[in-house]
Amino acid sequence: HPCSHVGHIFRTFHPYFIPEDSHGINTARMAEVWMDDLKRLYYIHRPDLVGKDIGDLTQRFAIKDRLKCKSFRWFLDHVYPQKYIMDEQAVAWGRVRNLANNGKEVCIDHLHRDRAAWLTSYTLGQYPCQQVLRDSQYFTISEKGELRNEYMCGSVVSTV
What we know:
Blueprint: H1 22-34, H2 39-45, H3 58-66, H4 72-78, E1 90-94, E2 97-101, E3 104-109, E4 125-128, E5 139-142, E6 147-148
């Protein structure tokens, strides 16, 4: 029976010095140790960390082995089976872009309105396509034909 709980309280300031992208490096370490083959989902959003030196993980893997921890896939299959896996349950994924805007690429974007797990509906917008694909512009066409992100499906609402 899984008993892990993860949480974080964000402050509006840092009372101490934080080295260059320590959050990215620490989350990459977490992905490498705990997410198994699904770490690819982390790196979709942080391609800048692929191959980056994130330190020696030998002790972390040893702890995982010693405690006989179950895989992340087991967690998804048994604890969170309703979790939508964007690159497994989709026929297409990536950006939705419009190239007919005077040569400027404009993408569908959630404009930071997405409240993720709260499942609160919001209106999508358009924004210049970002150089690096981030979650605000990452969408899929699900096997059911839905335009969706990790948490919610899109729908067309008529304003007429």
